[in-house]
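Example record

The entry below shows one chain as it appears in the dataset: sequence first, then structure tokens.
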Amino acid sequence: MKGFFQRILTIDLTNRTSREEAVGDDITRDYLGGKGLATRLLLDKTPAKVDPFDPENAFIIATGPATDTPIYGSCRHGIFAKSPLTGFYGESYSGGRIAVPMSRTGYDAVALTGASDAPVWLEISDREVKFHDAADLWGKETYETEDIVRDRTDAKRPGVMVIGPAGENRVRFAVVENDYWRSAGRTGMGAVLGSKKVKAMAFHGEQSRPIAAAPEEMKAYAKEMLQELKDHAATNAYRQKGTPMMVEMLNKAGGFPTRYWAEGSYDQWEKINAQSMTDKLNAKPRACMTCFMACGKYVEVQDGRHQGLKLEGPEYETIYAFGGLCMIDKIEEIAWLNDLCDRLGLDTITAGNLAAFAIEASKRGKIADKLEYGDPDMVADLLHKIVRREGIGGLLAEGIRPASEELGMEDVAVHVKGMEPAGYDPRALKGMGLAYAVSDRGACHLRATFYKPELAGMIDPEQIEGKAELFLDFEDRCTLFDTLILCRFYRDFYPWEGLQKVIALTTGRELDKPELRQIAANVSDAARRYNIREGLTMEDDKLPKRLLKETLKDGRGITEEQMAALVGDYYRLRGWSEEGVPV
């Protein structure tokens, strides 16, 4: 089938060997690439009930048929493994520039199996796999590691991904970084690499993806899209404000989680919003490859104790986690904590949630540490302790579920399947409650991006009946995004008709909407079967008790009965049993 190399590379880290394997047309036909292919590989290559840190937990890196094409929003890759944070399906995606050299190695996916007995970094090309000693890199932060690996790679512009000290020490929410500030951020994929003693990977090659359309046709489509959408309102909003524009939107909606999920708005929001980034950080647009949105914000702190600090970020989720949950009211301090997480290799969403949870634990007398809201130095110290696994940091490094159980705070902790929600309170946006509950990787906002229709007025946030049907439409389309792999922020620019066009240009297949939704269902069912194999039941598809019992100050809440109705409708529309099992 066009759009695919029809081969994967499997690297045995234990024996330091590699081999090529063919990918059948039946797999790419039914699942496409990206998440679809990776999910099949996880089912095939990872034994059931394997410990996430066991060498047999396969680590999959995948691209999609749109990768290394002129298609806008296509310079992305995904990484997949059993999650050490949740114990279930683990996936994470990242942009930047690395997906192009990754694709040019000539593989649709790379699978790491086994584990090295000593620190190693891998150089993967279209000619060979080289195993390099990484003893002198072990312990280094991410930026320095990336620079060194790039200099040592036998190519002019390799794509490089790395882990930081957090991944080395198996912190269960460690990330994998590329292009300095781009993170495959959730579910702890950096910890899986750390368990395999893989410090970094570099990719380069000269292979061209065999797409169906002629180069001129593909370029013409991209040019047409650019001319039509480069000045679109959504494009301008992302280019000018980026994701931090969500701070104001969620505060107005009453869904901006604050003081560790006790409130839905923050009275200091104007100090940490998009305008504050312009005023205090001199934010400038920054784009991934093949992108005209430039939603990233390259910033430099203008004054104060962090003057001169430069980075890309912080994004909305980082601002919510450290600004709202931890009540830090200076955007410069949030940028500093963002930079610290990037250097150490930590997921900012979980890091901010755990810091706020620790503050609550301190205030309730559950830990001896004296922690206060609004103190960025305390949070920074806590992050270092987590990475070093020192004191309370050692417990927090295991994630929210074990930490809350150890401290007797299960009724306070906010998570689904062991992963914390993003910055959209489901008591204000009830569709996000469904999104968090049924996401295959835990409380995730990106598997369906259902905050969009609720905030935009496409459906009433309070509505329960009929909501799952619209949710499923969003989730199926996002699943196809992840098989291609496309950026979520192009969601409004690739409706169903747009996805039909992209698939036709890349693979040559002319598919109607029901056929597209069948592929999405195949992928969702496969991920669900993987989770059920690992022990998931319908009891895991629930919001935390606290969010079901506590209301926001304005009285809004979400009940167990409402959640049961939403989840039941979702199961039925998916064609699953009443227990949530694909049939």
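Notes for this example: The first helix runs from residue 25 to 31. The chain has a mean pLDDT of 97.
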